[in-house]
Design goal:
The complex is a heterodimer of chains A (134) and B (193).
Chain A: H1 7-20, H2 29-36, H3 47-95, H4 108-133
Chain B: H1 8-18, H2 21-42, H3 47-64, H4 74-92, H5 94-106, H6 117-122, H7 126-134, H8 139-149, H9 155-162, H10 166-192
Helix pairs in contact in B: 1-2, 2-3, 2-4, 3-4, 4-9, 7-10, 8-10, 9-10
Classes of the chains: A mainly alpha (134), B mainly alpha (193).
Chain lengths: 134, 193
Amino acid sequence: MNRSSNPKAGDLLRNAADDGIRDMPDPDFDSVYARAVPKDVPKAVSGHDSKAAIRLPLLAAAILVATAAVGIPLRYNSIQRNYRAQVAGFVDWLYTPVGEFPVAEISEPFQVMFDSWNLLDSSFDLVGDEQAGG
Amino acid sequence: MDSEAPDDSELIERFRETGDRHAFELFVLRNVRLIRRLLFVMLRGQRDDMQDAEQEVLVKLFKSLPRFRGASSFATYLSRIVHHTAVDELRKHRRQRALSERVVAMEPAPDLERIDPLALVIAEEGRDGVIEVLSTLTPDERFVLYLKDAEGLSLNEIAAAIGKPLGSVKSKLSRTRVRFKSRYEEIIGDESK
Protein backbone atom coordinates (compact mmCIF):
# COMPACT_ATOMS: atom_id res chain seq x y z
CA MET A 1 0.00 0.00 0.00
CA ASN A 2 1.05 3.59 -0.45
CA ARG A 3 2.55 5.41 2.40
CA SER A 4 0.52 7.77 4.44
CA SER A 5 0.06 11.37 3.47
CA ASN A 6 0.05 12.21 7.15
CA PRO A 7 2.94 10.19 8.54
CA LYS A 8 2.68 11.25 12.14
CA ALA A 9 -1.00 10.46 12.67
CA GLY A 10 -0.66 7.46 10.37
CA ASP A 11 2.23 6.03 12.37
CA LEU A 12 0.44 6.61 15.63
CA LEU A 13 -2.66 4.86 14.38
CA ARG A 14 -0.77 2.04 12.76
CA ASN A 15 1.41 1.38 15.81
CA ALA A 16 -1.61 1.47 18.09
CA ALA A 17 -3.47 -0.95 15.85
CA ASP A 18 -0.49 -3.31 15.56
CA ASP A 19 -0.10 -3.22 19.30
CA GLY A 20 -3.84 -3.76 19.78
CA ILE A 21 -4.01 -6.91 17.71
CA ARG A 22 -0.94 -8.53 19.20
CA ASP A 23 -1.44 -11.99 20.72
CA MET A 24 -4.74 -12.54 19.00
CA PRO A 25 -5.24 -16.25 18.31
CA ASP A 26 -5.23 -17.64 14.77
CA PRO A 27 -8.57 -17.57 12.98
CA ASP A 28 -10.82 -20.51 13.80
CA PHE A 29 -11.47 -21.82 10.32
CA ASP A 30 -13.52 -24.79 11.50
CA SER A 31 -16.16 -22.54 12.98
CA VAL A 32 -16.01 -20.30 9.90
CA TYR A 33 -16.80 -23.30 7.71
CA ALA A 34 -19.43 -24.54 10.13
CA ARG A 35 -21.22 -21.20 9.87
CA ALA A 36 -20.65 -20.62 6.19
CA VAL A 37 -21.59 -24.12 5.01
CA PRO A 38 -24.67 -25.39 6.86
CA LYS A 39 -24.53 -29.13 7.44
CA ASP A 40 -27.20 -31.77 7.93
CA VAL A 41 -29.73 -30.00 5.80
CA PRO A 42 -32.52 -32.51 5.05
CA LYS A 43 -32.32 -33.72 1.46
CA ALA A 44 -35.91 -32.91 0.78
CA VAL A 45 -35.28 -29.21 1.24
CA SER A 46 -31.84 -28.93 -0.29
CA GLY A 47 -30.68 -28.55 -3.86
CA HIS A 48 -32.56 -30.36 -6.58
CA ASP A 49 -34.60 -32.36 -4.08
CA SER A 50 -36.13 -29.20 -2.75
CA LYS A 51 -37.44 -28.49 -6.24
CA ALA A 52 -39.08 -31.90 -6.32
CA ALA A 53 -40.54 -31.28 -2.90
CA ILE A 54 -42.17 -28.15 -4.23
CA ARG A 55 -43.19 -29.62 -7.58
CA LEU A 56 -45.08 -32.63 -6.23
CA PRO A 57 -47.69 -30.72 -4.23
CA LEU A 58 -48.01 -28.25 -7.08
CA LEU A 59 -48.67 -31.10 -9.51
CA ALA A 60 -51.25 -32.62 -7.17
CA ALA A 61 -52.96 -29.27 -6.80
CA ALA A 62 -52.98 -28.75 -10.57
CA ILE A 63 -54.58 -32.18 -11.14
CA LEU A 64 -57.22 -31.43 -8.52
CA VAL A 65 -58.05 -28.09 -10.07
CA ALA A 66 -58.22 -29.55 -13.59
CA THR A 67 -60.50 -32.36 -12.43
CA ALA A 68 -62.77 -29.91 -10.69
CA ALA A 69 -62.78 -27.58 -13.68
CA VAL A 70 -63.98 -30.33 -16.02
CA GLY A 71 -66.07 -32.46 -13.65
CA ILE A 72 -68.18 -29.86 -11.92
CA PRO A 73 -69.74 -28.37 -15.10
CA LEU A 74 -70.39 -31.86 -16.52
CA ARG A 75 -72.08 -33.01 -13.36
CA TYR A 76 -74.05 -29.81 -13.14
CA ASN A 77 -75.30 -30.23 -16.71
CA SER A 78 -76.36 -33.78 -15.99
CA ILE A 79 -78.30 -32.70 -12.92
CA GLN A 80 -79.87 -29.95 -14.92
CA ARG A 81 -80.94 -32.33 -17.70
CA ASN A 82 -82.60 -34.77 -15.25
CA TYR A 83 -84.32 -31.98 -13.49
CA ARG A 84 -85.68 -30.55 -16.73
CA ALA A 85 -86.96 -33.95 -17.87
CA GLN A 86 -88.78 -34.50 -14.60
CA VAL A 87 -90.34 -31.07 -14.67
CA ALA A 88 -91.42 -31.50 -18.29
CA GLY A 89 -93.04 -34.88 -17.50
CA PHE A 90 -94.91 -33.45 -14.56
CA VAL A 91 -96.20 -30.54 -16.62
CA ASP A 92 -97.39 -32.91 -19.37
CA TRP A 93 -99.29 -35.02 -16.88
CA LEU A 94 -100.75 -31.94 -15.23
CA TYR A 95 -102.24 -30.56 -18.44
CA THR A 96 -103.51 -33.83 -19.87
CA PRO A 97 -107.36 -34.02 -19.69
CA VAL A 98 -108.54 -36.84 -17.44
CA GLY A 99 -110.37 -38.76 -20.23
CA GLU A 100 -107.39 -38.71 -22.45
CA PHE A 101 -105.08 -40.20 -19.96
CA PRO A 102 -103.23 -42.92 -21.84
CA VAL A 103 -104.91 -45.90 -20.22
CA ALA A 104 -103.52 -48.25 -22.82
CA GLU A 105 -100.13 -47.49 -21.48
CA ILE A 106 -101.06 -48.59 -17.99
CA SER A 107 -98.87 -51.40 -17.02
CA GLU A 108 -99.99 -54.92 -16.33
CA PRO A 109 -100.04 -54.71 -12.55
CA PHE A 110 -102.57 -51.93 -12.83
CA GLN A 111 -104.64 -54.01 -15.21
CA VAL A 112 -104.68 -56.87 -12.72
CA MET A 113 -105.77 -54.42 -10.07
CA PHE A 114 -108.69 -53.21 -12.23
CA ASP A 115 -109.77 -56.80 -12.92
CA SER A 116 -109.88 -57.56 -9.20
CA TRP A 117 -112.09 -54.51 -8.74
CA ASN A 118 -114.53 -55.98 -11.26
CA LEU A 119 -114.66 -59.20 -9.26
CA LEU A 120 -115.37 -57.26 -6.16
CA ASP A 121 -118.16 -55.45 -7.94
CA SER A 122 -119.86 -58.71 -8.88
CA SER A 123 -119.44 -60.09 -5.39
CA PHE A 124 -121.10 -56.95 -4.08
CA ASP A 125 -123.93 -57.64 -6.44
CA LEU A 126 -124.24 -61.18 -5.07
CA VAL A 127 -124.31 -59.97 -1.55
CA GLY A 128 -126.98 -57.44 -2.54
CA ASP A 129 -129.08 -60.09 -4.18
CA GLU A 130 -128.91 -62.35 -1.17
CA GLN A 131 -129.97 -59.50 1.11
CA ALA A 132 -132.79 -58.58 -1.26
CA GLY A 133 -134.01 -62.23 -1.51
CA GLY A 134 -133.74 -62.78 2.25
CA MET B 1 10.13 -14.06 -0.79
CA ASP B 2 9.40 -17.40 -2.36
CA SER B 3 8.89 -16.77 -6.06
CA GLU B 4 6.63 -19.82 -6.35
CA ALA B 5 4.19 -18.69 -3.68
CA PRO B 6 0.86 -17.89 -5.33
CA ASP B 7 -0.28 -14.31 -5.05
CA ASP B 8 -3.67 -13.27 -3.72
CA SER B 9 -5.39 -13.31 -7.11
CA GLU B 10 -4.15 -16.83 -7.80
CA LEU B 11 -5.42 -18.00 -4.43
CA ILE B 12 -8.80 -16.46 -5.08
CA GLU B 13 -8.89 -18.07 -8.51
CA ARG B 14 -8.13 -21.48 -7.02
CA PHE B 15 -10.74 -21.04 -4.34
CA ARG B 16 -13.32 -19.88 -6.85
CA GLU B 17 -12.72 -22.72 -9.32
CA THR B 18 -12.16 -25.68 -7.03
CA GLY B 19 -13.39 -24.54 -3.61
CA ASP B 20 -9.87 -25.17 -2.32
CA ARG B 21 -10.09 -24.32 1.37
CA HIS B 22 -6.35 -24.33 1.74
CA ALA B 23 -6.20 -21.45 -0.76
CA PHE B 24 -8.86 -19.62 1.21
CA GLU B 25 -6.98 -20.10 4.47
CA LEU B 26 -3.75 -18.92 2.93
CA PHE B 27 -5.46 -15.82 1.58
CA VAL B 28 -6.98 -15.09 4.98
CA LEU B 29 -3.75 -15.62 6.88
CA ARG B 30 -2.01 -13.19 4.59
CA ASN B 31 -4.64 -10.53 5.10
CA VAL B 32 -5.84 -11.18 8.62
CA ARG B 33 -3.62 -8.51 10.13
CA LEU B 34 -5.19 -5.86 7.92
CA ILE B 35 -8.67 -7.12 8.85
CA ARG B 36 -7.77 -7.00 12.54
CA ARG B 37 -6.24 -3.53 12.38
CA LEU B 38 -9.37 -2.21 10.70
CA LEU B 39 -11.56 -3.88 13.29
CA PHE B 40 -9.37 -2.49 16.05
CA VAL B 41 -9.97 1.03 14.77
CA MET B 42 -13.68 0.57 14.15
CA LEU B 43 -14.39 -1.18 17.45
CA ARG B 44 -11.92 0.90 19.47
CA GLY B 45 -9.84 -2.02 20.56
CA GLN B 46 -12.61 -4.03 22.25
CA ARG B 47 -11.17 -7.53 22.03
CA ASP B 48 -14.38 -9.51 22.42
CA ASP B 49 -16.18 -7.45 19.82
CA MET B 50 -13.18 -7.67 17.52
CA GLN B 51 -13.09 -11.46 17.71
CA ASP B 52 -16.83 -11.77 17.07
CA ALA B 53 -16.60 -9.38 14.16
CA GLU B 54 -13.54 -11.13 12.74
CA GLN B 55 -15.44 -14.40 12.66
CA GLU B 56 -18.29 -12.68 10.87
CA VAL B 57 -15.91 -11.07 8.38
CA LEU B 58 -14.35 -14.44 7.56
CA VAL B 59 -17.75 -16.04 7.05
CA LYS B 60 -18.74 -13.23 4.68
CA LEU B 61 -15.41 -13.52 2.94
CA PHE B 62 -15.83 -17.26 2.47
CA LYS B 63 -19.24 -16.73 0.91
CA SER B 64 -18.42 -13.74 -1.24
CA LEU B 65 -14.83 -14.37 -2.32
CA PRO B 66 -15.82 -16.60 -5.27
CA ARG B 67 -17.74 -13.63 -6.68
CA PHE B 68 -14.80 -11.24 -6.37
CA ARG B 69 -13.79 -10.26 -9.92
CA GLY B 70 -11.10 -7.74 -9.12
CA ALA B 71 -13.17 -4.67 -9.97
CA SER B 72 -11.63 -3.04 -6.89
CA SER B 73 -8.40 -3.64 -5.01
CA PHE B 74 -8.19 -6.33 -2.33
CA ALA B 75 -7.74 -3.62 0.28
CA THR B 76 -10.95 -1.90 -0.81
CA TYR B 77 -12.80 -5.19 -0.95
CA LEU B 78 -11.66 -6.24 2.52
CA SER B 79 -12.24 -2.76 3.91
CA ARG B 80 -15.80 -2.77 2.65
CA ILE B 81 -16.57 -6.10 4.30
CA VAL B 82 -14.91 -5.02 7.54
CA HIS B 83 -16.75 -1.70 7.53
CA HIS B 84 -20.17 -3.30 7.05
CA THR B 85 -19.49 -5.93 9.67
CA ALA B 86 -18.14 -3.47 12.22
CA VAL B 87 -21.08 -1.13 11.71
CA ASP B 88 -23.42 -4.06 12.34
CA GLU B 89 -21.44 -4.97 15.44
CA LEU B 90 -21.65 -1.41 16.70
CA ARG B 91 -25.40 -1.37 16.09
CA LYS B 92 -25.77 -4.52 18.15
CA HIS B 93 -24.27 -2.72 21.11
CA ARG B 94 -25.84 0.63 20.25
CA ARG B 95 -27.60 1.14 23.53
CA GLN B 96 -24.70 0.56 25.83
CA ARG B 97 -22.27 2.30 23.51
CA ALA B 98 -24.46 5.28 22.68
CA LEU B 99 -24.22 6.56 26.21
CA SER B 100 -20.44 6.55 26.37
CA GLU B 101 -20.12 7.95 22.83
CA ARG B 102 -22.42 10.81 23.67
CA VAL B 103 -20.53 11.57 26.83
CA VAL B 104 -17.17 11.59 25.10
CA ALA B 105 -17.90 12.66 21.54
CA MET B 106 -20.70 15.15 21.91
CA GLU B 107 -19.28 17.06 24.83
CA PRO B 108 -16.78 19.87 24.22
CA ALA B 109 -13.10 19.46 24.99
CA PRO B 110 -13.15 20.58 28.64
CA ASP B 111 -15.21 17.49 29.45
CA LEU B 112 -12.22 15.33 28.66
CA GLU B 113 -10.68 16.76 31.82
CA ARG B 114 -13.53 15.25 33.82
CA ILE B 115 -12.67 11.74 32.71
CA ASP B 116 -11.54 9.52 35.52
CA PRO B 117 -7.90 10.39 36.31
CA LEU B 118 -7.19 6.68 36.32
CA ALA B 119 -8.07 6.56 32.64
CA LEU B 120 -5.52 9.25 31.96
CA VAL B 121 -2.88 7.28 33.81
CA ILE B 122 -3.68 4.28 31.66
CA ALA B 123 -3.44 6.52 28.61
CA GLU B 124 0.26 6.95 29.23
CA GLU B 125 0.89 4.37 26.59
CA GLY B 126 0.48 5.53 23.01
CA ARG B 127 -2.05 2.85 22.15
CA ASP B 128 -4.39 3.82 24.90
CA GLY B 129 -4.01 7.47 23.99
CA VAL B 130 -4.95 6.70 20.41
CA ILE B 131 -7.93 4.62 21.52
CA GLU B 132 -8.97 7.49 23.71
CA VAL B 133 -8.89 9.86 20.79
CA LEU B 134 -10.54 7.38 18.43
CA SER B 135 -13.39 7.15 20.88
CA THR B 136 -14.12 10.81 20.29
CA LEU B 137 -14.65 10.18 16.57
CA THR B 138 -17.56 8.56 14.80
CA PRO B 139 -16.96 5.10 13.28
CA ASP B 140 -16.81 6.52 9.75
CA GLU B 141 -14.42 9.28 10.78
CA ARG B 142 -11.95 6.91 12.40
CA PHE B 143 -12.22 4.47 9.51
CA VAL B 144 -11.55 7.16 6.92
CA LEU B 145 -8.66 8.59 8.91
CA TYR B 146 -7.10 5.19 9.46
CA LEU B 147 -7.48 3.97 5.89
CA LYS B 148 -5.96 7.14 4.51
CA ASP B 149 -3.23 7.96 6.98
CA ALA B 150 -2.23 4.54 8.23
CA GLU B 151 -3.02 2.17 5.35
CA GLY B 152 -2.54 4.70 2.56
CA LEU B 153 -5.67 3.92 0.54
CA SER B 154 -6.70 6.48 -2.06
CA LEU B 155 -9.74 8.65 -1.46
CA ASN B 156 -11.59 6.84 -4.24
CA GLU B 157 -10.90 3.48 -2.62
CA ILE B 158 -12.05 4.77 0.74
CA ALA B 159 -15.23 6.18 -0.79
CA ALA B 160 -15.91 2.75 -2.35
CA ALA B 161 -15.17 0.99 0.93
CA ILE B 162 -17.60 2.99 3.04
CA GLY B 163 -20.12 3.64 0.29
CA LYS B 164 -20.01 7.45 0.53
CA PRO B 165 -19.41 10.10 -2.16
CA LEU B 166 -15.85 11.22 -2.76
CA GLY B 167 -16.58 14.79 -1.66
CA SER B 168 -18.02 13.60 1.61
CA VAL B 169 -14.92 11.49 2.27
CA LYS B 170 -12.60 14.43 1.53
CA SER B 171 -14.36 16.80 3.90
CA LYS B 172 -14.64 14.09 6.54
CA LEU B 173 -10.93 13.39 6.31
CA SER B 174 -9.78 17.00 6.63
CA ARG B 175 -12.17 17.63 9.53
CA THR B 176 -11.13 14.45 11.29
CA ARG B 177 -7.42 15.14 10.94
CA VAL B 178 -7.82 18.45 12.73
CA ARG B 179 -9.90 16.91 15.48
CA PHE B 180 -7.57 13.97 15.92
CA LYS B 181 -4.53 16.21 16.21
CA SER B 182 -6.07 18.59 18.72
CA ARG B 183 -7.57 15.83 20.86
CA TYR B 184 -4.40 13.80 20.84
CA GLU B 185 -2.33 16.80 21.87
CA GLU B 186 -4.80 17.54 24.63
CA ILE B 187 -4.58 14.05 26.04
CA ILE B 188 -0.85 13.67 25.67
CA GLY B 189 -0.37 17.21 26.96
CA ASP B 190 -2.46 16.47 30.02
CA GLU B 191 -0.50 13.31 30.65
CA SER B 192 2.85 15.00 30.43
CA LYS B 193 1.90 17.67 32.99
